[in-house]
Amino acid sequence: MEPVYTQGVWLAELLQSNTRDYESFWLLATHIGDPKAAFLLVFPPVFYLHRRTGIAVLWVAAVSEWLNLVFKWVLFGERPYWWIGQSGLFVKNSPSVQQFQSTCETGPGSPSGHAMVTAAVWWVVVSALASFLRSRSGSRILAAVPYVFYVLLLGAVGLSRVFILAHFPHQVIAGILTGTMLGVILNRTVPDCRPLLFFLCISMALLFGAVLMHAGLKMVGIDLAWSIALAKRWCSKSKWVRMDTNPFSSLSRDAGALLGLGLAQFWKPGGWSLPWVPKTLCMALSSMALYHVSRFPLPAAPALLFYSLFFLKFVIVPQVVMVLVPGLVHLLTAKPKRD
Predict the structure, then answer these.
(1) Residues at the annotated binding site for substrate?
(2) Confidence of residue 15 (pLDDT cuts 50, 70, 90)
(3) Domain spans of the chain?
């Protein structure tokens, strides 16, 4: 793999040197492609626009990110920012590259989680939008516009990951192809109106399945913490190495979000029926609420406490979007019944 990695490093250097003026754009693209953005930024507005598609976004985001975690544990995969120093191949001819705050992720690099989850989640969104446009206008050209946006988005997210030295190009391509396939497949099996027991079982299966896999690999001598040690060693600034980029954080987010989805449908089956104006208010209030939920600080130690609270944080996300905010808006905007 050395030739592939080496070419990837030189490509990243070329991309950084030729597009340095667009640094803010690349950083925005990598932020949009962050898997947690699917839960906090994409899910709420899509849910208020179309309930089934919103649930599909949460479902696809959780399952695709969990599978990405499993793939990374099996495939390993270096990251450019640590491989440049770790390989020892660039002692005399060091590439002129720069790290960023979003660079220092702690999990293995293959395939790209940003590319994989973005491809899966946005396939759900653009395919639903294309179907809507086709049914309303009858125009194939208009229906193709969302897919053009899809390709451009994946291109921007993929290049941004190479630009910031978080991934090699082949890892991004693998993520895009895998994510697109998962988006197509998982979009056909959306668990809308399933019982709470279904979501509880799925959530616990994801959680304990990954934990057992981790324990099994550790027993046979495979140290899955190898990437965390490299991240801490080669990241330019130690504060850029954060626990919320740890693989177990992704696991906690996915299991928590699916349990939260089940609880939200259990508390209010079918959801709240609201006109468009109250739905717009719901979007604004949900965005504000989730911003504060995501920014709420969690203790970094002990690790079990952090992961438990991180799990609960994402259990709350569907409750806010599907139950609490719509319920509050319904209460405030409902017209009183006349006798």
Answers:
(1) 79, 161
(2) very high
(3) 2-332
Q: What is the pTM of this model?
A: 0.94
Annotated catalytic residue, options 167, 214, 292, 330: 167
SS3 annotation, the chain: CHHHHHHHHHHHHHHHHHCHHHHHHHHHHHHHCCHHHHHHHHHHHHHHHCHHHHHHHHHHHHHHHHHHHHHHHHHCCCCHHHHHHHHCCCCCCCCCCCCCCCCCCCCCCCCCHHHHHHHHHHHHHHHHHHHHHHHHHCCHHHHHHHHHHHHHHHHHHHHHHHHCCCCCHHHHHHHHHHHHHHHHHHCCCCCCCCCHHHHHHHHHHHHHHHHHHHHHHHHCCCCCCHHHHHHHHHCCCHHHCCHHHCHHHHHHHHHHHHHHHHHHHHHCCCCCCCCHHHHHHHHHHHHHHHHHHHHCCCCCCCHHHHHHHHHHHHHHHHHHHHHHHHHHHHHHHCCCCCC
Tokens of 88: 């020892």
If one counts every other C-beta atom within 10 angstroms of the C-beta of residue 288, the result is 12
The residue whose two tokens read 């991004």 is: 172
Q: Mean pLDDT across the stretch 271-298?
A: 90
Contact status, residue 80 vs residue 69, Cβ threshold 8 Å: no
Of these residues, 114, 170, 214, 292, which one is catalytic? 114
Has 114 been annotated as catalytic?
Answer: yes
**What's the pLDDT at 193?**
83
3-state secondary structure string, 97-150? CCCCCCCCCCCCCCCCHHHHHHHHHHHHHHHHHHHHHHHHHCCHHHHHHHHHHH
259 versus 218: which is more confidently predicted?
259
pLDDT in tens, 190-221: 998 899 999 999 999 999 999 999 889 888 88
Count CB-CB contacts under 10 A for residue 301: 8
